[in-house]
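User: Please run a holo structure prediction.
Assistant: Happy to. Please share the sequence and the ligand.
User: Here you go; the ligand is 3DJ.
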Amino acid sequence: MTASHPVRPDASPLLRKERFLLPDGILYLDGNSLGPLPRHVPERLDGTVREEWGQSLIRGWNEHGWMDMPRRIGDRIARLIGADPGTVVLGDTLSIKVHQALSAALEMRPERRLILSDSGNFPTDLYMAEGLIAELDRGHALRLGAPEDVIDRIDDSVAAVMLTHVDYRTGRLHDMEAITRAAHAAGAVMIWDLAHSAGALPLDLAGLGAEFAVGCTYKYLNGGPGAPAFIQVRPDLIDAIRPALSGWLGHAAPFAFEPSYRPGEGIERMRVGTPPVLQMAALDAALDLWDDVDMDRLRAASIRLSERFISEVEARCPELDLASPRDPEARGSQVSFRHPEGYAMMQALIADGVIGDFRAPDLMRFGFTPLYLSEADVVAAVDVLERITRTRSWDRSEFRARARVT
Ligand SMILES: Cc1ncc(COP(=O)(O)O)c(C=O)c1O
Ligand SMILES: Nc1c(O)cccc1C(=O)C[C@H](N)C(=O)O
């Protein structure tokens, strides 16, 4: 697409749009929710299906290293989140990984009863906490603060602080270092959900010292719908924690088929059951795109894109209000604008080939992903947004009808 407003030439070595299979005529600003398909993934997946599964059958577990995928791919993710090798394992959904981290955290602080989170956290994290509290039935409680003052609510009654680093609605960033320090000073365990951070900005989990981090791989990392989640555990704790979800593949000797559980050595103990080999294969292939990505440069490019987006939208669509922090250092890799008719506007945008998404009650959300979005794309997306808002083409019953789930 061509943009109507001047743009710098896209010389970014990070930009590799040709390596994605993006539909023609689409500007994709929703890679913060579901990353697009890397071009080489279908062929790799086809090989896994036809050659590995088709030909090797059950032998595939040994011949193709299927059983090691959760740990091996975990090491690839570790590099991207600044964690040590051997501290990350893949599997299950992020909701399950939240449960694992939280249950281990509560067991580490048996004398305390409070889980602290914030009211902007993604619902599943809060629901999983509620479910665990009910399951334990030992008088735990979930305390929610406003995102801005969660740090002031940390005290020595808190067992675990559980937060999502980048707010899924506004993109607001928590100060990871300050909050982790405060949690530790109060004797609490720190859990970070990196759903909107992994592949979006540089992280230094090894330096941070938080006990647990969890995240998903279907957003910025392009692992595909339903791609497995990850959990990272601080190295000194890995062999000390007790996995509450004590599945056989987290056992010390799964193929000894012992009648009683013994936790595996190392991060393997955070595995639960059979790895989803096809999803793992898709993710493994997708991660090839990340091998040479410098996360600091990625962050700089993401800020350039999102700053350009904000200044274009504010100049050309004055009826939209910025709902994300204005300071780029206080934002993740997404930007939200507020409008009472944001839902209909987003449907009109999507109908015109610009895909973002909507979060109730009034947020239009856009993700910035420098591997396949250029500054020209961002300006072209605003061209469409400007036309839609100027002509009020969104003001139609088909766009107002709330039929979509994402
Ligand atoms: C912060 C956060 N946690 C968890 C999830 C979802 O977890 P799951 O992969 O289990 O659906 C999402 C998004 O879906 C999210 O944004
Ligand atoms: N995980 C999702 C899904 O299975 C279907 C639709 C959307 C999602 C999402 O990832 C939502 C996302 N976490 C959000 O930030 O809103």
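The first helix runs from residue 41 to 56.
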